[in-house]
Amino acid sequence: MDYPAAAYHPMQIMEKTASLVHRLGFSTPRRRAYLAMVGLTGSDHRWARYLQKYIIRPHCETLVDHFATALLANPEARALLSGEHTMAHLRTAQSAYLRTLGTSFGGAGYFESRLQIGHAHARAAVPLTLYLASYCQLQLLILAHVPATLRADPARYEAFVAFLLKITALDMALATETYHRSRVGELEQSITALRHETTQLHRLVDTDTFTGLANHAHILNVLTEALRRTGGAPLSLIIADLDAFKAINDAYGHPVGDQVIHEVTARMQAAARRGDVLGRYGGDEFIIVLKDTTLATAKTIAKRIRAHVGDQPLELDGRTIHVTMSLGVASAQAGEDADTFIARADHALYQAKQTGRNRVVVSPAVTQLVAHLN
């Protein structure tokens, strides 16, 4: 039932798209199962020949005209069929459809053409209710052109009507299957696109736009969640801060200072491991969450980061700038919250600054820190 402009002659469609029979798994056994489902048998081929010889061929143009008139009486269909060009496509496509109705109905080619019709209707966004109603209209039109000689024989007429209902049921089933699959495919694509957009939005919300690292809020969320899920596994934390960064800004200007932050970020990422989560805590201060990592390993990683940042000077716009970094390291204690955990690592960072900078200091246990602060 091919009536929108986007629905072309079945054979034209087959040339433009991959075989739906193959893609949808309509093997010979499955085609036979479909025929059995609607009640079509080998003896129905003689009725298909009768349909073509005594009804379709003599009255094809009349059937197409009446079908088009019936569709145009429906406001929804009329909106889809507006324009002379669209009506021309309707007549061409409907004529081609009728001239193949029932012909070799068990073959792969017949199944392919009907599957493609449903695919075309889905692309054209034809409402399924209108689509199915059109089949009913077509059945009535065909029955109105049954020869009087056949009508005079009740048994044969009944057999023909049964065939017509079965063959149109087959066509509707095949076209509806691809119609739904196409629409589901479109919905899946939309859902995938929405998920991608959501992921991108989350990334934007969670990312420090200047460095590309986790921003302040997100890195704190990562740490809080890691503490909640640790389950006794080691969890460590590094707080790192550039040494005398204000002096760099004062000496070279903030644009150069920004380049320094970018370069230091890249060096830190190169020194960290794949599973480590780096975040910009603020300004030139950074936090690194190290899951499943002991204090000894965290100290080793902190030393590697310090070396990556400070052992080689930065070359920026013809300037050689020496940059160093101080780091405080802590390992989570049982029952410790994020604030206390960060405070211990921050205290270790303070000790690194106070004892000469460009070094790594490991935090004492929480009980030792409390005693020290008191």
What does it look like?
With 374 residues, the protein is of the alpha+beta class. The chain has helices at 10-16, 20-23, 28-38, 45-72, 75-80, 84-100, 108-123, 128-144, 148-151, 154-206, 216-229, 245-252, 254-271, 295-310, 338-354, 366-373, and strands spanning 235-242, 277-282, 285-291, 314-316, 319-321, 325-331, 360-362. The strands form two sheets. A five-stranded mixed sheet has the order 2-3-1-6-7. A two-stranded antiparallel sheet has the order 4-5. Helix 1 (10-16) crosses helix 7, helix 12 (245-252) crosses helix 13 (254-271) and helix 13 packs across helix 14 (295-310). The longest helix is centred in the middle third of the chain and has 53 residues, at 154-206. The radius of gyration is 37 Å and the shape is elongated. The model is unreliable at 2-17 and 366-374 (pLDDT under 50).
Radius of gyration: 37 Å
Helix fraction? Answer: 55-70%
Determine the N-to-C terminus distance: 86 Å
Average pLDDT works out at 86
Strand line-up of the largest beta sheet:
2-3-1-6-7
Poorly predicted residue ranges: 2-17, 366-374
Total count of helical runs of at least 4 residues? 16
Q: In sequence order, what are the helices and strands, one letter per element?
A: HHHHHHHHHHHEHHEEHEEEHEH
Strand content: 5-15%
- What is the general shape? elongated
Briefly, what is this?
This protein is elongated. Helices cover 65% and strands 10% of the residues. It is built from 16 helices and seven strands.
Features:
374 residues; alpha+beta; 5-stranded mixed beta sheet; two-stranded antiparallel ribbon; 65% helix; 10% strand; disordered N terminus; disordered C terminus
